[in-house]
Structure formats: C-alpha cells, structure tokens
Amino acid sequence: MRILSGMQPTSHLHLGNYLGALRNWVKLQDEPDSECFYMVADLHAITQDYDPEGLAQATREIAAAFIAGGVDPAQSSIFVQSSVTAHSELMWLLSTMTQMGKLERMTQFKDKAGKNAERAGLGLFAYPVLMAADILIYKATHVPVGEDQKQHLELSRDIAATFNTKYKTETLIQPEPYIVGEATRVMSLQDGSKKMSKSDPSEKSRINMTDDADTIAKKIKKAQTDPEPLPETVEELEGRVGALNLVTIYAALAEVSRAEVLTQYAGKGWGEFKPALADLAVEMLAPMTERMNQLMDDPLEIDKILVAGNEKAHQITQKTLKEVQETMGFWK
Ligand code: TRP
Q1: Of the residues 27, 102, 198, 221, which is catalytic?
Q2: Which of 29, 191, 193, 237 has the least CB density, counted as fewest CB within 10 Å?
Q3: Which long-range contacts (CB under 8 A, 24 or more apart) does 221-227 make?
C-alpha cells in the first residue's frame, strides 16, 4: 500500500481533524506493508484568501500537529507540497486532459465560489486537478480522505484512467479511498447538525489541538445537549443531534462503539457525562498539546524533518514525472 494524504495549513487543527483524519493516518502508518506520504498542502491553501506573512509558520504548525498526533517522521514522509515542484508540473499536464464540465460539477468549488463563480480564480476551479496530481505522482494506491473530498478522489481516478487510455499505458494508478475502521464525523459543539470546522466563527464550537485542559472542560460543559438523560440505544439518539455528537466523540476517543458508551451511561444525566467526556478528551489531547508546543519552540527541528521529507518526495515524484513526460512524447 502506498498512502498519500494532505491537509491545508489554513489554521489550527481541531478534534474533528484529529479523530476524522490524523488518527487514521497514524493507523495506516502502522500497517505492516504501508509506505506513507503526508503533505502540508500549501498550494491548495492559496486558492482562497490567505495571509502570506503567516503561511510559512502555518505550514510548520500543521507539520508539528502531524507529528504530535503520532505521525512518525522515521516511518512516514512528511513534506511540503510547494517544495516538491513535480506536483505543479504534473498538474499542468493533467489539466490538458480534464474536462471543464467535470470540474464544474465539483460541489466544493460551487460551495467555495458561491454566487460569484465568474470571479473565482482559476486555481480554485482547478484545485481538484492539483489534488489529482498530488496523488497520482506518488502512484498512491490508497488515499485516506473525509466525505468532503470523495468527489475529488473520484475525479483523480477518472483522470488516471483517461491518461492511461489516451496514451495506451498503465503508468498511473487509480487510487482508492481508505479509512481504517469507522470514519468519525465530529460535529460542532454548539450545533450538532453542522460539522466541526475551523471556519466556524464561534471558538466554542470546536476543541483545538492546542486547547488546555481548562478550555476543553469549559467547551464541553457548554456543549449543546437536551433535557433528556442518555438513552439505552443508539436509535434513540436519532434527532438528538447534540447528544449524538457527544456520544460519538466519547466513543471515538475511547475507541469503543456508541452502543458500548450507552451501556455504561444509559439513564445518566449530562452533568455526569460531560465531565467524564472532558477527562477523556484532556487525557488524549494533553500529551499532543505538549509535544506540539515543544516542536513549535524548536522550528529548526520541524524544518529538518520537512527537508528530509521533501527530499524523499522529490526522488519519487521526479521518477513519475519523467515517465509521464516520456509517455506524452516530450523532447528530452
Ligand atoms: N484538498 C484536501 C483537503 O482540503 C487536502 C489535499 C490536497 C489532499 N491534496 C490532497 C488530500 C491529496 C488527499 C490527497 O482536505
């Protein structure tokens, strides 16, 4: 298995990113036959408004979060997308065989561009082609992504197939989406019908990977629930979005099923459940926060790790790029 995934350095990571993505990356790294590449997707981050002065630091911070969350630089390559230039080069080549009509159907583009699609940058429109290049240049077999990126992954498969058919080759590999175990969708603590998100204006809606114990406990205490106690079965949580979210988070943190959580807490009130959940969250996040702060105090150490990851990524991606260029008939 060759695994590739990435996250944008747009802002601090939260519990949803950890439980929904990062923890899964760590599990994949620990599979016996896997080779993992984890990328800070800074070229994707510039497709929308961003702060040039903070970009390099945000890149280090996401890399630190990968490491604090358990990605081991000795086992997996951690690298920066913009430093591995073959990504952009392959993107151009692939863009010539990607139909505009297919890009127009991407729901994330429609969401991000909003009513002003005519004014959106070409980069935002072509975002999925860069993502396809990210994946295909490693010949990744498996790509751990959340629901929101499945459509992009499907397009990557499509582009790989188009290339292979057009050039009568098997150079590019069609990647599969991959999640170990159950995918956890963590919702906003303030509104259990919305995803926990870094773009939510309310800080209370999310638990950040850098929150201290006190802040975590306060946010959980204020989290949305309802007057009913915890039910006996998962079915009874239907429609109780806040309650369902907290039970889901508990189950994910403790790595047990929701049913098991309910066996333990059925009939109990939130006054009892919330402190238990807060303890669990703190226990899990505290060591990560500490490691993350240590790393952020030592940016040279992070840079060293990134330079090594970039080098490894460079070797592999140059090989694929050459193959593709040859297949396409370029002069050399
Ligand atoms: N678009 C992804 C996101 O915002 C990040 C990303 C960029 C990515 N390139 C990728 C994820 C390649 C998986 C594979 O979440």
Answers
A1: 198
A2: 193
A3: 221/274, 221/275, 221/278, 222/189, 223/189, 223/190, 223/274, 224/189, 224/190, 224/191, 224/192, 225/270, 225/274
